[in-house]
Every structure is written in C-alpha cells, then in structure tokens.
Design goal:
305 residues; mainly alpha; Farnesyl Diphosphate Synthase; 2 domains; globular
Length: 305
C-alpha cells in the first residue's frame, strides 16, 4: 500500500511530498496517510462544479468511513465527473485502499489519523455551509479575527497537533528535546501560519468564488482588503516563525529538515506578499520549483536562517 501511497503523494502534492519522504520510518506511514485522507476530503469539498448537497453528503460519508462507523463511500457521478485533475480523481477512486491502509495501522497511530481527519472535515463542512449562498458578485467575509483563527485551527493547526502527537508516540524522547505541551502549542501555531499563508496568497481567487477569509466589512473594498492583508501577513510571519523554533528542538537531522521545509517556503512566500499591490496579488505568488529544491538542500544542510 505504501508504494501506491508514494505515487499518490507525488501526484497530489508538491513540496509536502518532499517533507514526508524525509520523515523517520516510524512516523512516515501515518503522516502520509493522514495527508492523503485530508487531500481526498479537500477534493470532495472543493469540487465546485458538483452540487453543494452532494459534496456535503460525500464529506459526511467520508467522515463516517474514516471513523470506522460507516460503509466505504461510493462517490456520486456528479462528484467524479466534476473533478478536472486526473490525479485527484485517481485518489478518490483509490479511497478503498486508503481505508485499508488506515485499518492496518497500529491502533494508537490510527486513532491520531482519525482525530485529525475528523477535525479537518469539520472545518471543510463549516466552510461549505458558511459560503453556501456566496458568489463572485456577492462575496461573504468572515465575521471577525476569531472566525479566521478557528478556521485555520480546524484545517491546519490541528495538523500541527497531529504531527507532534505522532512524533512523541512513535519516537518518544527522540522526537524533541522540549516537553510535549510546549511542542503542541508551537505545532498548532505553525500549522495555522501555513494555512494563513495560503489564504493570503489566494485572496483574489477565493474572492472570485465568493469566499473572503479576511474579516473586512466590505469584501469589494480593495483598500480595506489590502490593509487587512498586510496585518495578517505580519501575524502569519509570527506563526510561521514558530515552525523554525519547533524544528530547532528536533535532534534528528532528517526530521528537522522535513519539519522546517514548509516554514522556509512559507517565509519566502510571505516576503513576496509583504507590501504587495492588488494587481500583483492577482497574479498569485508562487515559489518556483527550483527554489523549493534549493530550500530542501538548505534544510538538509542545516542552513535555515
């Protein structure tokens, strides 16, 4: 199963595939499966050409199957025919094998995977319901800072907690030189920071779909959006900074490199987003693949500053 998992990871991820391949063996399986399950649920939630009700029902069925209390889902044609990316389609078509992989994990690892995927699906479902009536002409903004932080926790901060719990579960004291409670706090902040970077980078594209994750009074007010964007860029910088602090506590070189790589890419993205104008933001900031591999080499060499 893990051989198939490698192929799926190559297809549906970019930098995170590199991160997962660097992980110590005891962590790699559960971390990879957790990512693939979350990516599958994300495909269900984000297939906008499919009816909303079909997506909600499919997410619920997926969640029950992950929890072990439901039959293996059979995806509606309205979902499958609406997926443009063949790699994402293949991932959903292979979901039965993902659930088989989950059933074969050691019990405690499987429970951690189920926990994080449940939280993520909850965030995805909330997102679909919250923006159900919105579109590009009538975008809806999150109500306040707390709503944005809650969303970031659900879909990414929870991943930082999962990573930390899995590390201590599988590696024990070899995982980190810092107590678990401190690492959990850092991991949650780091995960929220990575999600916030995505939100800031994708602001125009999300707006075109009716979603404004920045809490502004009027999503049509470009100046207000840019002011909020600048404020949250600074917050993202603080949270991503916790990723560097987190990685410094990890004795294993490969684990440290795997952990810090997303932070390095996020930091470079934030540098390009800082002070950006609306026209440039509409071009969608993206770190070239060569820069990702350069970051990987620097991470492995311990030059992350």
């Amino acid at each position: 199963m893990e051989d198939s998992g490698k192929q799926w990871l190559k297809g549906v991820s970019r930098s995170f595939y590199l991160t997962l391949r660097l992980l110590p063996g005891p962590m790699r399986g559960a971390a990879s499966l957790g990512y693939l399950l979350a990516r599958a649920s994300d495909t269900l939630a984000d297939t906008e050409a499919a009816p909303l009700e079909a997506r909600l029902q499919s997410l619920d069925a997926f969640g029950r199957a992950v929890a072990g209390g439901g039959a293996l889902p059979r995806w509606p044609l309205s979902i499958m025919n609406s997926i443009d990316d063949p790699r994402e389609r293949r991932l959903l078509e292979g979901s039965e094998r993902l659930f088989g992989w989950l059933a074969g994990l050691p019990g405690a690892q499987a429970e951690l995977v189920r926990e994080v995927v449940r939280i993520i699906i909850g965030g995805q479902r909330l997102d679909l319901e919250r923006f159900a009536g919105a579109d590009g002409k009538h975008p809806l903004a999150l109500a306040d800072d707390a709503a944005l932080e809650d969303y970031a926790w659900r879909v990414a901060g929870s991943v930082g907690a999962f990573w930390t719990k899995l590390g201590f579960l599988t590696l024990g004291e070899r995982f980190s030189t810092t107590p678990a409670d401190v690492m959990l706090e850092k991991g949650v902040a780091y995960g929220k920071g990575l999600q916030l970077v995505n939100i800031l980078r994708d602001l125009p594209a999300d707006l075109a779909g009716g979603r404004c994750y920045l809490p502004v009074a009027d999503p049509h007010d470009t100046q207000a959006l840019l002011a909020s964007h600048a404020r949250w860029v600074e917050r993202a910088g603080e949270w991503v900074g916790e990723g560097f602090s987190y990685a410094e506590t990890l004795p294993c070189r490969r684990l440290r490199a795997a952990t810090v790589l997303p932070a390095m890419i996020a930091r470079e993205t934030l540098e390009r987003l800082r002070g950006i104008g609306w026209e440039c933001l509409q071009q969608r900031v993206k770190i070239p693949r060569r820069r990702v591999y350069l970051a990987l080499l620097r991470a492995l060499a311990g030059r992350c500053g």
